[in-house]
Amino acid sequence: MTVKFLLIGKHLELPSLNVWDKWHWTKQGEFKQALALYLKVQKLSRYRGIGFPFVRAKITINSYRQQLIRDTYDNVAGCLKPLLDAMQPPMKVKPTVRYPDGIKASWRANIIAGDDRKSIEVIFNQFVDQKNRRTEIILEEL
After folding, report:
1. pLDDT tens per residue across span 86-140
2. pLDDT for 26-77, tens place per residue?
3. CB–CB of 33/107 below 8 Å?
4. I want to staple 23 with a disulfide (CB 3.0 to 4.6 A). Which of 27, 44, 48, 77 is the partner?
5. Count of beta carbons in the 10 Å neighbourhood of residue 69
């Protein structure tokens, strides 16, 4: 089973590790919550009948950016942390988000079962596209 998620726009562009480390922890949390909510909406609207979370998955991330991150590989791959956190199942002690209408919900999207080496394989690709910045996430169940 192959599933494709699309993150469109500057506000959902995955930051490099250097940028991520400079953000305040509240900004990091807000980014992860927005990312998870965006993934949840796509999961519920496009992939309703699929058995999530995937226990083993291959994740291919194609990042179309204004310019390439040219630093070391760990700086490029460091931007995967917020994405993988957002894709995991809710924690047992649920960090919740209170929406304006009073509803409480877990902010994790429950797409993959875990982010350890036994559960996922990750391939990260970067491309330059100055007019149409986006991130494509392709999951293949193993």
Report:
1. 888 877 655 555 555 555 556 788 888 888 888 899 888 888 888 888 888 888 8
2. 888 888 888 888 888 888 888 877 888 888 999 898 888 777 766 666 676 6
3. yes
4. 27
5. 20
3-state secondary structure 11-61: HHCCCCHHHHHHCCHHHHHHHHHHHHHHHHHHHHHHCCCCCCCECCEEEEE
State the DSSP string of 77-133: HTTHHHHHHHHSPPPSS--EEE-TTS-EEE-----BS--STTTEEEEEEEEE-SSS-
Scan for tokens 């649920």, then name that residue: 94
What pTM was estimated for this model as a whole? 0.78
In DSSP terms, 121 is beta-bridged to 58
Amino acid at 116: D
Q: Residue for token digits 């940028």?
A: 19
Distance CA 3, CA 46 (A): 9
